[in-house]
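REVIEWER CHECKLIST
Item 1: Sequence provided? yes
Item 2: Single chain? yes
Item 3: Sequence as submitted:
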Amino acid sequence: MKEPSILILAGEASGDYHAAAMVKDLKQICPGIRVSGIGGDKLAQAGMELFHHYREINTIGLNLGIGKIRSIAAAYRKMKFELRKGGHQLFIPVDFPDLNLRLCHLAGDSDVRVCYYISPQVWAWRKGRIRKIARRVDRMMTIFPFEEEMYRASGLKVDFVGHTMERDIPLFQDKNLLRRELGIDLSRPAIALVPGSRPAEIHRMLPVMCEAAGIYSREYPDTQFLLPLAGPHLADMVREVLAHYDIQVTLHATEAARLMAACDSGLVTSGTATLQAALAGMPHVVAYKLDRFSWILARKILKPLVMDEDIHVAIANVLAIKSEKHGGGPIIELINSGFRVVCKECGRPLFVPELLQDQASPENLAEWLLRFRSEEGLRAAMIRGFEQLRSMLKPPQDGLTPAAVVMDCLKG
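Item 4: Structure as written out by the authors:
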């Protein structure tokens, strides 16, 4: 019997990470399975044949995508060709809906089954897409529990498979032991600066974080600042930015979650790192800036028209708000402990502080770092809330793993 072939499109780092874990498990279950498509280094290491790297099609901000139009078109044509030529039993789109939903339609026309992994964030905006997804997808795998009920109501077969990071980021019980392993000074407080993995994010966010660190250091000069490099290719760029500031920041090649678990608090750019920080149990501020045009468009036009009014950039806050609406969770934990984290945009209580655009100033970031240092009750309540978030992301005990769902789909 011919070994099965699956096609994957993971258009960004987080999708590459989740899909790679799935492919590793698939290779153990079915060593001869062929996996090809678009992804990143982790998928390649897991054994996938890369047609294109996701960096060729990934963009951020509305003014940065023009130069990549040719690469995006070439990647789309390649995936379209692969779907139409036959030979693949299953297409697994991973998030990245603007391109993947088009390919789902082509897969259906080519009699290729579609098992979507990591739901597009329809709970955040454009909820009307649920009906389109249900028409084009045979099965959905979600990594957040609240998504399962939403898709099931649409008639789509859906499995909540848990979050890969909950499995991969353990609870680090002994912070001093972890610091010894990472070569971090045990005698000095440690703060993580996590400016993101994209060059635009680093150039936009790292200077603000450095200025905030400078303000904080005037009060607590004994502090050490640590920065986890998202990849060795970013080292020169990061050092170039740091050279403009009179603070010492130590770069670490270790995984971000391990470094954050060893720190007392941190400043984190919106994205995957916010969930890593939560699972690492590190009190932190989420900060983010866009170019001015993208921000105005998102804040003044897109959010009022198509986005959920209660959506926030930190996934910890999304999960906490869902729990709050059921009468529990991290936000209630904070409030019951005597603390309120208020959203500067809408005024509602949050779990993790979010400082966006003009609010993401060095002074505001430093203020939260000072609070984390001086208010032990706040730190303790946040750490308890992080433990609650972790429990939400665990897969159900009787549920299927992503690899098991894929194998089930291959059976037809």
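Item 5: Key structural point noted by reviewer: The chain has two domains: 5-162+395-410, 175-393.
Item 6: Recommendation: ____
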